[in-house]
Amino acid sequence: MIDNYLLEELVAFSEHKTLAAAAKYLNVTQPTITRGMQKIENELQVTLFNRQKNRITLTDVGKVAAIEAKKVLA
């Protein structure tokens, strides 16, 4: 089962668009967000994020997961 805090990290990333902004919003470090993202992907066994050289974005599945995570947290 995925921890609610990991869902909060996913939602924060989807709303703030960068790791740094999501980390700042949640008052944690950027590596904390990165580890959380990896943990969510490992638990769900799907790719939620497109990782490019200097940019990370949500995949289509990641966008749906963020919407559902927001519903769970509401």
Short recap of the structure:
The protein is mainly alpha-helical and 74 residues long.
What can you tell me about this protein's structure?
This is LysR family transcriptional regulator. It comes from Ligilactobacillus salivarius. InterPro entries: HTH-type_LysR_regulators (IPR050950), LysR_HTH_N (IPR000847), WH-like_DNA-bd_sf (IPR036388), WH_DNA-bd_sf (IPR036390). Pfam families: HTH_1 (PF00126). The structure is a single chain. By secondary structure, this protein is mainly alpha-helical. The protein has a single domain, classed as Arc Repressor Mutant, subunit A. 68% of the residues lie in helices and 11% in strands. It has four helices and two strands. The protein has a two-stranded antiparallel sheet with strand order 1-2. A hairpin with a 2-residue loop joins strand 1 and strand 2. The chain is globular.
CATH class: Mainly Alpha
CA distance, first residue to last residue:
18 Å
Q: In total, how many beta strands?
A: 2
- The CATH homologous superfamily is termed Winged helix-like DNA-binding domain superfamily/Winged helix DNA-binding domain
Structural class: mainly alpha
The helix tally amounts to 4
Task: Look up the CATH topology.
Answer: Arc Repressor Mutant, subunit A
What is the helix/strand order? HHHEEH
Strand ordering within the main sheet: 1-2
User: Radius of gyration from the CA trace?
Assistant: 11 Å
Low-confidence stretches: none
Protein name: LysR family transcriptional regulator
Domain HTH lysR-type: 2-59
GO cellular component, one term: cytosol
Pfam families: HTH_1
